[in-house]
Amino acid sequence: MTDSPQSRFRIDKEVAVITGGAGLLGYQHARAIMSSGGIPVLLDINEKQAKEKAKLLSDTLSGECHGYYCDITDKKSVHGICSQLIDQFGTVNILINNAANDPKVTQTPGEKPWSRFEQFPENIWDLDLAVALKGSFLCSQVFGSEMASRRSGVILNIASDLGIIAPDQRIYRKEGIDDNMQPVKPVTYSVVKHGIIGLTRYLATYWADKGVRVNALCPGGINNGQPPEFVQKLTNLIPMGRMADVDEYQCAVIFLVSSASSYMTGSVLTIDGGRTCW
Predict the structure, then answer these.
(1) Which uninterrupted H or E stretch holds 43?
(2) Which of 127, 148, 176, 192 could make a disulfide contact with 210, Cβ separation 3.0–4.6 Å?
């Protein structure tokens, strides 16, 4: 008998590794996993915060959640936590590659903004690509290989609407400042989010015969206390006229990691209030 549509959204007792799990979206992904019966494992370089967020989720949702340290730019660290989780749970069913640097567009008055392409710091380029792209590559390589050996698993890569389109630098513009001094969205954000989509499509075809599905979610901007002027400029670019609420991606996450999306791989699900339509 075919499972009911409702039951296909359940992931009872499935172990879901979430990188950058202590961050804003990582916490929301974990809430989604727990709401459908799964066991989220929050990996973060900030071990204390990962454990605190895991305890908060366990206490408030009366379920199982764990937080661990992992440096996803270090393959030895990724291998170590994978082995630990296999020993603890027997398997890892889901990987959500969520970790990424998202530097704020700020500058010191009178100094050229570091975010502009012409003077973008090489060390920040290296770090941003290491966390978002190398980290996703290493986690997919380690956890994905384990999934492929079992011929079962799901990888969800968190990209962005800015993995589909270029940032509109006008929303960061400040009045009374010369063009070459204007703050901009850093180049690395676009590069890593476009790269995440490329990794998604590569892995989806690479492991298609191994029972491993790989998809990407492209969320739009989340309203998280940004200055009203910025929010207004951004919402002017969004047909729905607002930014996302922090919990509005939870249902999409459950759809993409559960058997509800069983015939879906290599796809890019964009949820951005319609921004990329314009």
Answers:
(1) strand 39-44
(2) 148
- Please tell me the distance from the alpha carbon of residue 106 to that of residue 123, in angstroms, as a whole number: 17
Exposure b/e, 113-135, CB count within 10 A at least 16 = b:
bbbbeeebeeebeeebbbbbbbb
Q: In terms of C-beta density within 10 A (0-12 exposed, 13-18 middle, 19 or more buried), how is residue 37 classed?
A: middle
Q: Can you state the angle between helices 250-257 and 24-35, rounded to 10 degrees?
A: 60
Query: With contact defined as beta carbons under 8 Å apart, do 199 and 157 qualify?
Result: yes
User: What structural domains and CATH numbers belong to the chain?
Assistant: 7-106+129-174+185-266 (3.40.50.720)
Helices assigned H by DSSP within the chain: 24-35, 47-61, 75-89, 122-129, 135-150, 187-206, 228-235, 250-257
Distance, C-alpha 196 to centroid of its chain: 10
Q: What is the pLDDT along the chain (278 residues), one digit of tens a residue?
A: 468 999 999 999 999 999 999 999 999 999 999 999 999 999 999 999 999 999 999 999 999 999 999 999 999 999 999 999 999 999 999 999 999 997 665 555 556 678 999 999 999 999 999 999 999 999 999 999 999 999 999 999 999 999 999 999 999 999 999 999 999 999 999 999 999 999 999 999 999 999 999 999 999 999 999 999 999 999 999 999 999 999 999 999 999 999 999 999 999 999 999 999 99
Which residue type sits at 89? F
Question: Which H or E run includes 217?
Answer: strand 212-219
Residue 256 vs residues 49, 131, 269: alpha-carbon distances, Å? 26, 23, 9
